[in-house]
Amino acid sequence: MIVFDQEKLSAFFETVSRGFERSPLEIVLVIVSFLVFIALLVFIYRLQRIKVHRQQRLIAQRRYRQAAEKHTLAPSEEDLVQRMAHFLKNPEKKYLILINQPTFTYCAAKLKAKDGSAAAAIAELRSKLGFRLQGPEQIPASSAELPEGQGVLMVAANPKAPGTRQDRDRRQAHGRVHEQEAGSLVVQLIETDASFRRGEIVRVYFQNRAGLFNFTTRIQSVENQLIRLQHAEDIKRLQRRKYYRRRVSQRVGIRYPGSEEQPTLSTFYDLGGNGASLKNPDKRYSSGDAVELTFLAAGERFTLVAEVLRTSKNRDVLHVRFAPMRETTRDRIIGSLFHGAGKSGS
User: Fold this and answer.
1) Which of 63, 151, 159, 327 could form a disulfide with 95 if both were Cys (CB 3.0 to 4.6 A apart)?
2) What is the pTM of this model?
């Protein structure tokens, strides 16, 4: 049997308990040491952040300088980039304006909203940087983004009565983008005898898969079939459909393709670059039928094959889609719609 000495046992526990006792000074020193350690960690972290930020700033400056030298930016153009950079979350990354098209467009829109007089300089810089539409479904932000070969329709405009019927006279010209210059959109005219003059205001229409667009600009020079237009940053979308369509009332002949019978007289309800709606004579045609349409547009005779997609209004109306055609033919049909060709039967 084990017998404990009570006095010695009490003395042992007293010695152990004294080992856990600390003076107030010792406690303060422990807390201070802990705080110093935390502060040291924060200091090291901030020092590292400053170092990383300095490296990022140097990298951003180097990238900007490389891009500026690549495009040989003039001092005025660098000032413009600096103004645009104010709208970036991190203005030090202004090199993105020179290499990233969406960033350029975002900053350009912000600057134009603040200072409309900067539009011309923005368009010149956009063209100089070589920003173009990356796909036919993209919405353009400037005439400087139009790709070479893009079809356009130029219509003489009346600056005294914009948006009215008197806004356009009958002078129009089909063309294609020939070249993009820093200060000009160069258009090569196609199949036209329309005369345009230097300094004249024109409205330019074009389309891609995102819809139909237009902008108003001024002619800078006319040399044979080449017309230089001032760049425009104010691009308006008129329609979202793939090809422009307009309500018309125009006679059209319809028959089955290859038929020797005379075309039956019908009437267009609307006409566009990819199809039309027209009266179904005697409810003769049905969905899925192929039809041949003959009509006049802007004084020119067209004969096109189309597919009946569907009928409506108790089969009284045909909705057709044109078979594949040359883009020049489509451009002429669309161009005829801008002057109300076919408003009355022709």
Assistant:
1) 63
2) 0.56
